[in-house]
Structure formats: C-alpha cells, structure tokens
Amino acid sequence: MKTDVAIVGAGPAGLMLAHLLRQAGIDVVVLERKSSDYVLSRIRAGVLEQVTVDLLDELDLGERMHREGLPHEGFFLADGERLIHINMAELTGRSVMVYGQTEVTRDLMNASAARGVEVVYEAEDVALHDIDNESPYVTYLKNGTEHRVDARFIAGCDGFHGPSRQAIPDTVGRAYERVYPFGWLGILADVPPCNDELIYANHENGFALASMRSKTRSRYYIQVPLDEKLSDWPDDRLWDELATRLGPDAASHITRGPALEKSIAPLRSYVFEPMRYGSLFLAGDSAHIVPPTGAKGLNLASSDVAYLSRAMIEYFKEGRSEGIDAYSQTALARVWKSERFSWTLTTLMHRFPDGGAFGRRMQVAELDYIAGSRAAQTSIAENYIGLPL
Ligand code: FAD
Ligand code: DHB
C-alpha cells in the first residue's frame, strides 16, 4: 500500500493529525496496536485548552463538545489554610473546556470512515524502516499476514512506549527526564462533582484533585507512593481519604458512588529532542511526558499536530519545506514551557518524601504569595488556559 503519511498510533495525536491532513486532501493510513474499544476504555485527560477546542472546531467535529462539554472559567488551589481562586476569565479573558479525552477520541473515531481516514486497528508488530531517507515504510501484521505501507513521511504518534522514538538512533537524540517519587490514584464515578470548579489540594497526607467529566460524572485523584497497590484502596478508603485531603467544605459536598474505573499512574517529566529524524516526525507522548498536574499532556499533543499538520500541508500543497524543517524547534519551544508549568504545579502541590521542612516552607511561602498577588495568579492562569501557538 502507498500513502502520503503513515501515522503510527490512533490516540488523540494520531487521529487529530490524520483528520487535519485528510481535510487538506493528503492521504493517510493510521496503524493502531489496540482495538478501538480498548483505546476508548483508557480514562485519561479531562481539560481541553483553546488549542484543542480550536482544532476540533477546525475539523467541524466540535458540535458535541460544545453541547456536552463544560466551559470552566476558574479553579481553586487549596492548602488547608487557604482556598485560592484562580479566576482565569477575569485574569486572562479566556477559559478551558472540561470534556474527556475519551470523548475527543470517540468523536474523531466516529468521523474517520466517512472522511476517508483509514485506521487499521489491532495492527501487530508495527516496525519503521528507512526513516533516514525519503522513502520510508512501515510494516505490520494483521491477522497473521504481513503488510507494508510506503509513505513520504511517518508520524510517530504512538505514545511513550511505542516504536517510533525507539527507531531514532541513540547517537542522534537526547532525552531529559525527571521521575517523581509518587503516582496518582484516580477514580471515576457516576456521581455529581463536589464543586462547580476543579480543586487542587496540597494536604499533609498528600495531593488531591477534585475534577469531573460532566455534571453527573466525577473524576478524583490522590497522590500515592509508587509501590501502592490498587487492592489496598477499596472505594470506601479512597472516598474517606479524598474527604480528608480536600477539606471539610468540599468533603461536605462529596457524593460517594461505586468506581467505574480506578487506576494508578506514575508521574514523569520527559522530553526527547529532536522531534524529527529524517522522514520521521514525533508528536504527543511519543516525544514528551508531563506530570498530569495542570492537564497539559493531551493539549501538548494538540499543539504538536497543529504545527505538524500545517508544515506537512505546506510541503504537499506548496512544495515548501521550511515548516517541516522548523517543526522540531517550533514544537519544542512550546513543549518546554508546558513542561515548566506542569513541573512547577506538581512541585507546589504535592508532598515530597524527601522535601524536608525547608521544601514545605517554600510551598507555604509560594501559596501565600500567589494568594496575595494578582500578577502571580495571572501567570498561573495564562499557563493553565494554554500558551498561544
Ligand atoms: P496516546 O494517547 O498514548 O496514544 C498513543 C497510541 O499509540 C495508543 O492508542 C497506543 O495504543 C498506540 N500505540 C502504542 N504502541 C503502538 C505500536 N507498537 N503500534 C501501533 N500503535 C501503538 N493528561 C492530562 O492532561 N490529564 C490526565 O489526567 C491524564 N491522565 C493520564 C493517565 C495515564 C495512565 C496516561 C498514560 C496519560 C495521562 N495523561 C493525562 C496524558 C494524556 O492522556 C496524554 O498526553 C495523551 O493521551 C497523549 O496523546 P497521544 O496520542 O500522544 O498518546
Ligand atoms: C484532570 C486531570 C488533570 O491532570 C488535571 O490537572 C485536571 C483534570 C482530569 O482528569 O479530570
């Protein structure tokens, strides 16, 4: 099979890129290791920046998001002593949209066939070949038969563990990494949220986040040690701990319910440079990971594919390669700023086992400063709503 762009991975990065290219008349084939049901069963991000909202609108796929999503104009930082309101709308004139990654993926998936976006699910043993020249190709197994897709470019949208980044020779790239000594235990439940806006809490037992997917579906997280087991956290224990960490006011509004999903995710900051090697372009989690505090992961995948789609469209439609040549540098400039914000918010709101008394006093001083400074609140708000492309 021959196509213009072979895309590895049908997460949000791969599907958004596929639709953006297809809308411009560029041929794509997307290869995904898992089934479509499996991809939709992964509960991940919940907050969309304007960049993601704009991309879905540009694709004319934003109708359900605008109907069912919840625009949020602010959020809270809590530390037991204070409840700091970050009023994004007042400070920046902008807001974010609460609409789950699962729903974004579902909207893209449902539109694929009608728009000529070919997605091969359950493609096994995907391997990249000849990425250092202009005729790369991808091979995969489907139902025991080997297939080959020849392309002009390959887009590696296959997440942190996928084969694309690993296809780049060790001598070419460099990884920057910080692994945090804790993870997030998340619970999804069909109960009304405890508050209209998100609450990020720094409690002596550790971080907690009260989030949501809709007016009837809540998403909560707590910081747990890395070696914690899900079996140690029956629903009741988790609800009790959330009530403790979020404080009495929020706790009095928590509605408990059975977990629809419960999982533990480790926290990591990671950037791989460069995001291009020859005919291979990385986008989304294949190139970078942020700790989830601040909800930047999915939104960075969106900004990557916004840059990459524009650059590839220029290449195929106008024969210009300035955009693809600048892609890595352009995308990384925004990636590093989101890495900085996610790291800052993670450092401010979590309890670090080796943070010591000084580290804790720094958190208190910073929260105190944020509480009293409109400038500090504006800085947080403009990063949270998402930096411009
Ligand atoms: P992914 O969504 O990972 O998609 C990559 C796709 O590639 C997957 O479908 C995968 O199956 C496929 N793939 C992998 N290997 C192969 C292969 N060999 N062949 C073919 N296909 C392959 N962000 C937030 O902002 N808030 C959150 O609360 C949050 N929670 C998260 C929880 C978890 C457990 C994880 C892992 C991430 C979370 N994130 C969160 C981050 C956010 O979900 C990601 O940044 C986002 O999914 C990135 O999209 P992506 O398309 O780049 O990668
Ligand atoms: C969610 C996750 C986040 O990391 C965050 O900062 C806000 C919301 C969520 O899953 O709802």
TrEMBL record:
Residues 2-342 form the FAD-binding domain. InterPro entries: FAD-bd, FAD/NAD-bd_sf, HB_mOase, RIFMO-like. One of its GO terms (biological process) is benzoate catabolic process. PANTHER family: P-HYDROXYBENZOATE HYDROXYLASE (PTHR43004:SF3), TRK SYSTEM POTASSIUM UPTAKE PROTEIN (PTHR43004). This is 4-hydroxybenzoate 3-monooxygenase. Its EC number is 1.14.13.2. One of its GO terms (molecular function) is 4-hydroxybenzoate 3-monooxygenase activity. It comes from Henriciella mobilis. Keywords: FAD, Flavoprotein, Monooxygenase, Oxidoreductase. Coiled coil: none annotated. It is an enzyme of class 1 (oxidoreductase). Gene3D superfamilies: D-Amino Acid Oxidase, subunit A, domain 2, FAD/NAD(P)-binding domain.
